[in-house]
Structure formats: C-alpha cells, structure tokens
Design a protein that fits this description.
The chain is about 40% helix and about 15% strand. The relative contact order is 0.18. Strands 3-4-2-1-5-7-8-6 form an 8-stranded mixed β-sheet, with helices on both faces. With about 270 residues, it is α/β, with parallel strands linked by helices.
Length: about 270
C-alpha cells in the first residue's frame, strides 16, 4: 500500500480500548461511546466495511455490579465479563440502530482461530455478515476462556481478526496519541513517532507495560499487533480514542497518530 493506504482501505478493523468506553470507575462513558458509534456509522455510510473489536466487558461488568476494583481471580473476571458483555452489546445495538445499522456479536478464543476447520467457519461467518452489511462486534470469549485457549488482549485479537477478514487496515483506538520516543506521561520531551517503517529493536524498546488499571493492554501489545498485521501486509494506526473524529482525518489521508507500515500483502 502507498502513503494513502488508509484513504484506499475498504475493509477496516477498528479496536477500541477500555479507557475509551468507560470512566475510571468502570461505568460506561456514554458520551464517548455515542461519539464512537456515530463516527463508525458514518464511515459505514461511506461504503467502508467495518469490524469492531471492543474491549470493556470486564470493566463495564464491574461498574454494573458495583465492584470497587478489577477482580484478580478467574471466576470473578469471567462473571464480570458475562455481565459487561451483555451491557455493551445492548448499548451498541441501541446506538447503531439509531443510524440504521445492524450489529452482531462474535466471541472468539485461541483454540477456535488455531483450528483450521473452526477458523474457516469463523471466516465464512465474517464474510457473510459483511456481505449483509452487518457490523461484527468482536471480543474474546472471556466467560469460557482459560489459560490454554486465552488470546490475552484485544490488541492481539484485533490483529488476528484483521488477518482472518483480510482487512486493508487496522486501527487501534487507545488512551494515547500513538507511539512516542518515551512515555509522554513521564517525559515532557517525548516526541510522537508519526510513521514506523519497520519494527526493530529500537521500536520494541519503546514499549512499556499496561497503561490502565482497567485494561489489559499497553504499548507492548500494540506493537505485537502491528507485527502480526504487518506480516500479513496490513497497515496499522494507533489513534487517541478520546477523539473518534480522528478516524475521519486518518481516512482522509491526513497524518494523525502513528502509522505502522505493513509488508507486502499476503495472498
């Protein structure tokens, strides 16, 4: 893809992080979700095929139940996810329907995407949903996941989904503007890196740990997602999810966030 790859992208996977969807206590950030949905609906109206990978199930479940902090034990995480996933899908369905768009839920685990037969079933389902104009909303199936089948974070999941659907581009909406030369929360001299041509040791060294108490990701998982996407020839961008309007700028060909260039497209 050339420098205008995002302008030309027809099929796009968008991943939204927990911090974009929720307030600090875990309750839903209604205004933030409404802005996101309105923007995605408008992009669909402009004939783009979208797949949304949505975090937030555990955090939203915490808010609904009234848990004071993110649970540490697996049963509690899975139970919170079960509650939160229901809340999230209700909200997405309600908001997207206001713009005459249908949504669907797709829950995945590692064993599904690594088994060739079941993976093909997933691919077929995605293709039919997109053919019908339905917006698939994807999350890991936290309620049944355990160590052997867990994917672990939705940055990685979004890159896997981008490969499955043969996306033209992957966009990660995060709580940061992109990849910096240092942690901008700690270093006022940190500079945004607009384009990453290749993920080398220098780029890998810039990754830190998890950036949010409610989320599971961080720059490490985002760079890993860029590696997975890049190996499949898929360009990836990191944008600040607090301003979904940046998606318009990205697809208008403007330089926003950090663009990780994909390699040669695999067929």
């Amino acid at each position: 893809m050339n420098e205008n790859c995002f302008q030309k992208a027809k099929r796009v996977v968008v991943k939204v992080g927990t911090t974009t969807l929720t307030h600090a206590g875990g309750s839903v950030n209604i205004r933030g979700v409404e802005r996101l949905v309105k923007t995605l609906a408008d992009l669909k109206n402009a004939s783009r095929e979208l797949v949304l990978v949505s975090s937030g199930a555990i955090a939203v479940g915490m808010g609904a139940i009234g848990l004071p902090q993110r649970p540490y034990d697996i049963p509690s995480k899975q139970a919170a996810a079960a509650v939160g996933q229901c809340e999230l899908m209700y909200l997405y369905d309600k908001l997207f329907s206001e713009y005459n768009h249908n949504v669907s839920q797709v829950l995945l685990t590692r064993d599904v995407v690594e088994d060739e037969h079941r993976k093909q079933n997933v691919i077929n389902t995605f293709e039919r949903l997109l053919e019908w104009g339905v917006l698939p909303i994807v999350n890991e199936n936290d309620t049944v996941s355990y160590e052997e089948i867990v994917i672990g974070d939705n940055d990685t999941l979004s890159a896997i989904v981008a490969k499955l659907v043969r996306a033209d581009a992957l966009v990660l909406l995060s709580d940061i503007d992109g990849l910096y030369t240092a942690d901008p929360r700690e270093d006022p001299n940190a500079q945004l890196i607009p384009v990453v041509e290749e993920i080398d040791e220098r780029i890998l060294s810039l990754a830190g740990g998890s950036g949010s108490a409610l989320g599971t990701g961080g720059m490490v998982t985002k760079i890993h997602a860029a590696q997975i996407a890049g190996e499949a020839g898929i360009d990836m961008a990191i944008l600040n999810g607090s301003n979904p309007g940046l998606l318009y700028d990205l697809f208008d060909g403007k330089a926003v966030g950090t663009h990780f260039k994909g390699g040669k497209k695999h067929v």
